[in-house]
Specification:
- Keywords: Dioxygenase, Iron, Metal-binding, Oxidoreductase.
- Residues 98-227 form the JmjC domain.
- This is Cupin domain-containing protein.
- This protein has 385 residues and is α+β, with helices and mostly antiparallel strands.
- Helix content is 25%, strand content 24%.
- The strands form four sheets. The chain has an eight-stranded antiparallel beta sheet.
- The relative contact order is 0.11.
- The structure holds succinic acid and cobalt (II) ion.
- The site of succinic acid has 10 residues, from β4, β10 and β11.
Length: 385
Amino acid sequence: MSDSPFGDISVEEFLRDYWQKKPLLVRNAFPDFEAPVGADELAGLSLEEDVESRLVVQSPDGTDWQIQHGPFDDDTFANLPESHWTLLVQAVDHWVPEASEIIEQFRFIPNWRYDDLMVSFASQGGGVGPHYDNYDVFLIQTQGKRRWEVGGFFDQNSPRRPDTPVMIMTEWEPEHNWILEPGDMLYIPPQVGHNGIGASDDCMTYSVGFRAPSHAEIMRSFTDFIGEKLTSESRYTDPDLTLQDNPGEIRPEALQKVREIFTSYLQDDARLGEWLGKFVTDPKYPELDQRPEQPATVAEIREALKEGDLCFIRNEGSRFSYSAGQDGEIQLYADGNCFKVSGSSCALVTSLCQSPLIVINQGEWSDQQLQLLADLYNQGSLYTE
Ligand code: SIN
Ligand code: CO
């Protein structure tokens, strides 16, 4: 595997010319990739209560579309038609640790932009129909063949069928028509129209998906975060009020005062940074309790280290990011929580954010370092082998 998954195109060139701009087809991007989850395992995952899955079935002429949401049962699969259906399972990397390895090839995008690995299996003719997403996605063909029609930018106002439970865009002329074979990869930017159609009976696609918060989510989350910390005495004030001609007028001075309320919170870097770190590392499935049955203490970790090195692994469903603070301090954000560290713990934090596992050898570790590991372990963001 070369350093760049884009063949002759370097990662820098990809970011400059394609990322969020235009689609890119890469033949043989992952020639040796052996998919850790096959069709049977995928169907097995879709039977699980906590796993998010969908089954999309269409009539062969494309007039009728049906969607069902998991968890499914064995009958669901026994009663499927011969062709024109697809099963899609979200966050496969959360459930199958080996599946998360492919994500490491995409770490040139910041951790916090990553969403999940979705895996789909399609029969001949199966797919979710012509649509666009608001996310960047890398589609890796792992088995069988899929035809991809790609092109054009779309948005909320683009014409679509009103009578289908999945987005089926009408009035669409794709610019590209590509058949992907195992190992090939296709990058699709947000809002670019695409339609993947199973071109064999065993079509499997791994989708490495990225997310970008909407402005609505950013505004709501930030104002909630600030609002929760304020007392009712923090209020609009106007000791400089002067007589106005019409009491009904909202004067420009009032508008300016409200603007200053907003900007005072926005200009506080520490607060804005803390909100952003917590917001972007919130787990995808916060309702899943990942905490260990038995919490660990610093003394227990020290004791365990006497027996040998310890390997701490980031929970596959966990999000880790950090930001550099003032005076050499670092803020680690893990699953929506903030840990402020300094000194020798900073290197531990940057290592934890850089790679999915860290080996703690039998050397010298401070209480602060081991406390951080204990805290992350106890909140379920790290586990040990
Ligand atoms: C897929 O069917 O594997 C990809 C679905 C999509 O285009 O979003
Ligand atoms: Co899509």
